Amino acid sequence: MNRSRTTSGSNQFSRSQSQQQYLTGELTIQIDNLPHIAAAYGEAAAIIAEDVVHQLVLDIIGALGTVTRLQSGQFHVAGPRIAKQIIYGLLPTVMGHPLKIREDAFHLVISVTGPDFATRPTIASERSPWLGGRQQSRYPAAARTQWIAAYRADMAAAAALFKTLNDDHVDFETRPVRYAGSCDIILYHELCAGIDGHDIGPASPAAEPLRRLGLLRVLEEHVVQRTIDALCAAPDLRLGVNISMESAVLDLWWFNVCERLGSAPSVAERLVFELNGIDRLPATADAIDFMTDIKRYGCQIALDDLGPDHVPVWSAGAFSPDIAK
């Protein structure tokens, strides 16, 4: 499975750059979890999944370009403005909705690579070290059975959550974030997503199956879009939205969000990105670049869970946040 990541010499979606370069040229589309699907649901399911993605790419691209099947789970796409078609069509359609084969339902994980950009592969390959043909014989049958059961359980949890999301049955509530020096001063309100009173944010137990499967970004992008919708509807509102360190990289997943923020500065200046998970992941160059570029749109950056019981305050210096919580 190809896990290389191509980067350009500068931030991918800087406002000083033209986004046109990301709308033309050539792309490689990869089904990152195809070996996982084959192992957990059978080779026939993986073949059907590959055929479905191939047909969907053909339908999305249409006469704009050409689609060529490469090695297992890979497709080469060429043509003008194809990246935008893939962003608005393939990624949310495939990753946010299940593929149903008889009694099984599972989600596919897609990454896209171009000459100057890539989406970050998010599959936790360490959960399945025996995937890969000949290596399977090195691992006991009991270990494979246990992994399959865990993978299918995670996928069932993800499918249930995304069904609730797609049926618009997720509850959104706002919680005030107050200034430490005076509880009377509200800096902004955090928009929190939940189901039946249970939080489904990136730090919640409900998000862990999505994180393990590589699907967390689908949920986070949806919540960010809903937050922008709320800001557009209420000009006096100031909202924060929580995203994970795994998502803090400016790639194609954020293209639509960046377009909306760039076209509505009055909305961007009222949006706070709360970065969660710096206690688990280091201050990567991707994350620092993400925050730098997001701030160029006018947004603010907040870091979650700082303090002696969580993340040391001194370790947040590399991020240069506007707000520390």
UniProtKB/TrEMBL annotation:
It holds the Pfam family EAL. Residues 154-325 form the EAL domain. This is EAL domain-containing protein. It comes from Phyllobacterium myrsinacearum.
